[in-house]
Design goal:
CATH architecture of the largest domain: 3-Layer(aba) Sandwich
Helix content: 25-40%
Strand content: 25-35%
CATH superfamily of the largest domain: Gcn5-related N-acetyltransferase (GNAT)
Strand order of the largest sheet: 1-2-3-4-5-12-6-11-10-9-8-7
Order of helices and strands: EHHHEEEHEHEHHEHHEEEHEHE
Number of helices: 11
Structural class: alpha+beta
Number of strands: 12
Largest sheet: 12 strands, mixed
Radius of gyration: 20 Å
CATH topology of the largest domain: Aminopeptidase
CATH class of the largest domain: Alpha Beta
Shape: globular
Length: 296
């Protein structure tokens, strides 16, 4: 058992402790997912501790504490943690703070600058809507999907198993090359994916691959986020195969609609092309949270 009141690096063996908090508080934000924290841990350098029966998470690279999970969190609790971080040479900032918490704790403005963080807002979609693709806004997506299915009636959608890991890594690296890897999240994405494949079963991950002529042209990786929402961690496709992006999106929604009502497709990180792609699927919600920047 880890000592209470001290931050610790996240290890695979910590999963049950953190997952108990995630299940109990059932938040819709992708940050409250153990697989997410573990796969991206090398980039963000996430840490955790239990203090006063609350879970505290911290991103070293961002030098920000994440909104704690626990009963009765108050502005005084955040200020105390901010003071604690400052006393250890940190900035004492917070991220992923719900706007309704900020609105109901006006005294935060005495100690923090409040910034609405659109770049890290999660996109939420109805599984059924992504599967049915009804309406004018999704008409183009449905046409591209239908064209792919007509042109490739022999394509196969299969569960992502170890035999496909290598091809998925290759596809992810090609995606990075196409994007020139000039954005840090892209450069680290394949590393996060490798870590996910290394501990796929232990992290309770699932996935799909799209096969065309026995080659992987698209894949997705996902798992449970909360009672009614799945979290899509990765979704890649061969940009040279028209409609492959639409088919992996559709097949993922089809499979997950049997267990979940919604999909969380994570953030756009302020990347314009990614923002356009996510908005083009007409999200049902956009979970904007706040950053609290400590006043000096």
């Amino acid at each position: 058992m880890k000592e209470a009141g001290h931050f610790h690096e996240i290890f695979l063996g910590d999963q049950d402790i953190l997952q108990n908090f995630f299940i109990r508080y059932n938040r819709p934000h992708s940050i409250y997912n153990f697989a997410n924290l573990y796969m991206w841990g090398r980039l963000h350098k996430y840490w955790w501790m239990i203090l006063n029966e609350r879970l505290h998470l911290y991103s070293d690279i961002d030098d920000s504490a994440i909104m704690p999970l626990g009963d009765g969190v108050t502005s005084e609790n955040l200020l105390e943690l901010s003071d604690f971080l400052e006393s250890h040479g940190r900035k004492g900032n917070f991220c992923f703070v719900p706007p309704d918490f900020v609105d109901s704790h006006k005294q935060l403005e005495n100690y923090f600058f409040i910034k609405y963080d659109k770049d890290n807002a999660d996109y939420i979609y109805s599984c059924q809507k992504l599967f049915e693709l009804k309406g004018k806004k999704l008409h183009k997506k449905k046409n591209l999907l239908s064209q792919f299915q007509r042109d490739n009636p022999d394509y196969i959608c299969s569960a992502l198993s170890p035999q496909y890991y290598s091809e998925c890594i290759d596809l992810s690296e090609k995606w990075c090359e196409d994007k020139s890897c000039n954005i840090v999240s892209y450069a680290y994405e394949t590393d996060a994916l490798r870590r996910g494949f290394d501990y796929f079963t232990a992290l309770n991950l699932e996935g799909l691959v799209i096969l065309l002529k026995n080659q992987v042209i698209a894949f997705s990786v996902f798992n449970r986020l909360n009672n009614n929402t799945a979290l899509v961690h990765f979704e890649k496709y061969n940009r040279e195969v028209k409609g492959s992006g639409q088919v992996i999106n559709w097949e993922t929604a089809r499979v997950l609609s049997e267990k979940y009502s919604f999909l969380n497709r994570e953030q756009d990180l302020g990347i314009e092309g990614l923002r356009q792609a996510k908005q083009s699927y007409d999200p049902d919600d956009w979970l904007i949270t706040c950053r609290l920047i400590r006043k000096r």
